[in-house]
Structures are given as C-alpha cells and as structure tokens.
Amino acid sequence: MERDPIIPAQPPDIVRLAAWLLVVALILAGLYLGQDVLIPLAIAFLISFALSPLVVWLGRRGLPRVLSVIIVMATVVTLILGLGLLVGSQVRLLAVQLPTYQSTVRTKIDDLGETMKGPGIFDRAMDMIDTVQKEVEEAVAQNQESLPQTRVQVVPAPQSPLRTAIAWLVPVLAPVAMAGIVLVFVFLALLDRGDLRDRLIRMLGGNLHRSTDAIEEAGSRISRYLLMQLVVNVTYAIPMALGLWLIGVPGWILWGTLAAVMRFIPYVGPMLSAIFPITLAFAVDPGWNMVLLTVGLIVILELVSSNIVEPVLYGTSTGLSALSLIAAATFWTALWGPVGLVLSTPLTVCLLVIGRNLPQLQFLDTLLGSTPVLDVPTRIYQRLIADDPEEAIEIASTAIDDSSILEFYDRHGIEVLRQASHDFLTQARAEHRLRVVNGMDVMLDDLREEYPAPDQPKGPARVACIGGKWEIDNVACEMLVHALAFQDISAHQRPAGVLTARYLDKLDLSDVEIVCLSYFSRGPELSARSFCRRLRHRWPGIRIVLALWNPTELVEEDAGFDKLGADAVVTSVDEAVRRIEQMLSPELARQRQVAPRPENDDQRVAALRETKVLNGQAREELDALAARAAEVFDVEFAVITAIDAEREFIIGQSMDLPGEVTEDSRNMITLPREDAVCDHVVSGDDTLVIHDTQRDPRFADNPAINLWKTRFYAGAPLRTTDGLVLGALCLLDARPRDLDEGELELLKELAADVAQAITGQDASEDGPKDDAENSATTGQRVPK
Q: Do 558 and 638 fall within a single domain?
C-alpha cells in the first residue's frame, strides 16, 4: 500500500512575513492610487487638529458646537482671503516694477563677466572644443544642402471657444476645487469630532484604553505641533518682513508671508523662501550692500529661530529620529509629491503614536522613534560584550553627568552585573565573560580616577567587602567600596574564594567592624549561611551585611534571613551605604534620616495655620479626595498630611488607621515631626516614590510605616500659589510597586486638587523639574 508523500509545512515565520509584505504592498498601492481622495482628507484632518482647541475653547464659553465651528471657520477663511488680497497687491506692484530692474541686472552680470574674463588654464581646451563644434556644424550643413528639401507647413486646427476656455480654467479650478473639498472636510471633522473618534476607536479595536490613549495622544501632539509651528513661522516672518522693509527690498510683505508659508515644508522650505528676496535685492541695488544685508538678516533669523525660538516653544522633539524624519520625507514625497513632503512629519508622528500604544504595531515605535531602544545598563553591557570598554566608559560618564556616581552605581552599575549574572550560565561564552569582567575593571578604574571622593577616608578600614562566589561579585564590591568613600567610610575589597580554612586564614579582619558579603547567584542561601557561620565562629563580634543583588522571593517577603546569620540584608548600593552607615554611626544615621527643615519653614507653617485645616476644616472633602486617590491608583490606602512646626497631622485618610489621636475634637492622627511620613516630601519640595520601604533606611524604621505595615510609599507635595509646601498626598500599599511617568503626573494633579481644597485657591503645580534634554534629532519638533 503506497502512502501519500509527506509535504513539509511552510515555516510559520515565512508565511507571516509573506502576509505582512502583501498587506504592506496593498496599503502602499491604496495610498498611491487613492491620493486624489486621501490627500484632501489628510490635509483636512491635520487642519482640524489645529483648529479643534479653538472650537473646544468656544464651547466651554457656552456657545453651541455648530456656532463655534462656524465662527472658527469664518475667521480662518477671512484671514486667508485678507492675506491673499494683500499678497496679490504686492505681486501686482512687483510686476509693474520688474522691467525697471533689468538694466541693473544686466550691468551686474556684465561686471561679473568682465571680472571673470581673462586667460586661464582651460582656455586652450575651450578653444579646441569650439573648433571641433564648428567643424561638426559645417559638415552637417553640407550634408543638408546636398539633399533635396521640401518645405512643409503645419497649420493647427482652429479650436472652439469652449475648448480654449476649458484649457485655461482647468488648471485654475483644480486647486480651487481642492481647497473647497478641504474646507468641507474640515467643517465636518470639527462638527462630528466625537463620532469620528468613536469610529476610529472601533476600527483600531483591541484594548479600549490603548486605543483611546493612542487617539488622544496623536490628536494632542499634532494639534500642538501645528499650532507651535504656526507660531514659530509667524515669529520668523514678522521680523523678516520688517527687516526687508528697513533694508529697502520691495515686496517685503510678500516675502514675509512666503517665508511663513514655505517653512511648513521641511528642509527645503526655508531655502526656497530665501531665494526670492535675495534675488530681488540683487536686481534692485546697483551695489552689493542690499544683497549682503538681506543674506545676513536671513542667516540671523534662522539661527535665532532654530536655537532659541523653537526650543522654547516646542520644548521637546517630535520623538522621531533624524533618520526616520529624512526617510519619511522621502517616502511621502515619492508617494504624494510636494504635498507629501509637507504632510510627512505629522503623518509619521501619527504612525509613531499608534506604534507606541498598540502592541501589534510596536515595531513602528522602534523604527521611527528617537528614544533609545536599549537602556543605559544594556548599552554598557553590550559594549563590554563587544570588547569596547572605551564606549562603555563614555556612556557611563554621560549617565553620571546627568545624576551622580552613587546613583550610577545604584541604578546602572549593579544592573549591568545583574544582566551578566543572568547570562553567565545560559548565553555567555567564556570569551564574553572575560570581556565583561576585564571591561568592568577598566571602567571602574577610570571612574575612580575621574570621580574621586571629596575627602578620602583615613585610618584602618572599618568595612570589608567580600565577593561571595563569582568574579562579578567582586566587581560589585569595588562599586560599594567607592560609594562608601563618599560617606567618609573606610572600606576595602577582598576577593572571592572557596570557603576553606586556608582562605579564612588569609582574611585579616582584626580591625574590621562590618563584613559585607556580595552575591549575584539566584540561590545564595546555602553559601551565605555557611560563610556567615564560619565568620561568626572566627570573629564573634563582627557584624555581617548580606548584599543580595538579585532579589529573591525571601527579599520581597522580607522574611527568613535571621536563619542565615546576617545582621542585615540589602539589595542595592544606596541601601547598603545607608545601612552600613546606620550600623557604624547610629546617631549620625538617625540625624540623616530626619529630613532637614526648609528655609521658608516659618512662612510655610504660618500659611498652614491660616488655612484652618488643622482645626478640622474641609475634613470630609479631604477624606473623599484621599479615598479617590486610593481607588484611582489601586493602593491599600491614601492619606493627606500637613506638617506643623513640631508635628505631622493626618488631615485626610481613605480608611481608619491606627495611631495617636489628638485629645480635642479634631480627631486627627498626629506624629512627631521627626517620625513624619511626609517630611522628606516637604523638605525636598518634590514628589518622592519609595518602591519598597523595607529597603530604604529612611522608612524602614519609621514607626507609622511599621504600624501600618506599609511596603510602598509615594508622596506629592501640596503646594500653594506662593510655592509653599503645606504637606503631602501620600499613597501607601502593603506590597512593593512602582509608578510610571503618567501616574506620577496624575498624582501631582490630584495633589493640586487637594491643595486647592485646603487653601480655596488654584494651587501651583510649579516645582523643581528636571530639564529634559532634547532628543538628538534634526528637523521639526513637537511638544508633549
């Protein structure tokens, strides 16, 4: 019995790739073939994005939406028609004056020809070319004379008046029809904005939250982009027109308007708008002063606009990389012509936002975005694997310049070693392991030399850092020794080794008070317990800190370490430094745990007492706001605190909490200021987020935090219009967690609402903000 031949199945990746290529081809074909319909739609939607805030603003003033749309559209059309009439008058005036400039142009060209005239090294070559050309022309003429010639006269057929009118009107009516279609689409898009949004959400499908975020972000970014681009162009055009008027260039209104319009075209628009006034200045002035002044004016305006006006108004980039901006401009120009060049940046921003919010199209964010696809630790680790420690040092130095050497070790350095430990037994080859270890040694030597501690610790080492098992455990010890030096704690690093009596005999721990054992292995319990037991047996009075850089479940649950024989367990460089400092100098550590009082503390306390909130005013409203915050962020509870001169008051809470209650009728939980849960927020005047309070010595020993069994803390300052911080809105949870940037902004907004409820005034959201660096992109920018 014969069997049917087995046909191997196609690999699913190839089938998926073929399907994607087919879909992309169909989309490109549809974009190209349907450009007559899609271009007006795209222009209309972009204009509607820019005009939508004006319609919303009028709607909030009580006007019906239809009337708001009509007012906005009528205003825009009136401005365009008025500007068109003004430009038309300038064009007619220039048309009358142009013949008078011919003699000036001819004279300048003759002068240039005389200047460039004279013997040169190419004269003989040019003479030879002229001779050859004359001989060829004479030969062709002789051949034509030898042939019989018949004269033929072509008489064109007379055209009817209708065809002549159509030939003249079609080129004129096409743009007018396009403008009319765009205006109709803009009116409908502004009128039915909600319905269009619902249909787009339905088309995107999937997660409703993601689809909504994508549409809202795209609309907001493009709207601000177009409005800011208009502001930038106008702030460029007005000085240019006034400058040309002072210089004496005719048609200065026309050239200013042209500059404002042409700057909407990326890259080539500013250059094209500069050609016309420079050419006219060349034709008007018999000399060269007007040309030089015009060129100087344009160069100065470009420098000011690019380096001052645009960064101030935009604030940040479009989020598109330089390569994607150029590629997008090329792609849309090839697809839709010059109109595609104008629309390239807004359309590509839409694709970027969609890719950022929809998981299925996340590759668009990777391809188009300017945000680094690899974080700092991964970039450093990759450079070390590639045996490029110099570039790894450069990346590390840049990260340190943005923060500090201690933050670099805590946030990036340990993470590099954590990735190396993860790959140690899985992906890394022996060559890769050697490169990472050698590269880290080189980088740490450079960092210690470039960023030395201000005051080098003196005297014998009080702390010994010992690697537990691997070579990367030793590297972590080197980081910790360098970090301890910044706190004036003398420490030295001891290499890892096999736990034998011979190894322990080599350890000199006579003057050492604390031993820090470093482990990156994911199951260090057996090795750590054995090491601690032997150290206790040899040096009974020594204290042991166990640094587990790869946190295990025991660390998250904060249990079981008493059986390992360690006095403390840490999981980060910052926690290790704080814990060791606390063990060596408890009083000094206690002083540092207490937040310093701000310079304006007296004014702050006076403003707090003026609100009467400590007397129980607005208590019900504050409890409701705390409950709302706890529900929005899905935390166990939230509290609103206010700090007086000596005590902290819980003036709002989402649930009943244990704690000391004042004896009067205010019925508030109070804490001494040195034990306050939000004093660090008041002192720092900024939002504070603690992923795990048990890992932060400032909160690990706080009585209220321990009483409430809290593991997560986030506090946002309650700031008045005068910038005085009265207290904080605090989120607390029984499990460690984090907040992303969007959640942090939302927490600040809720804190502003709380401050307004306390003071009865619109609270100020201004505070210390990190100056975000612009992405290393070229081209146009858009605000967030």
A: no
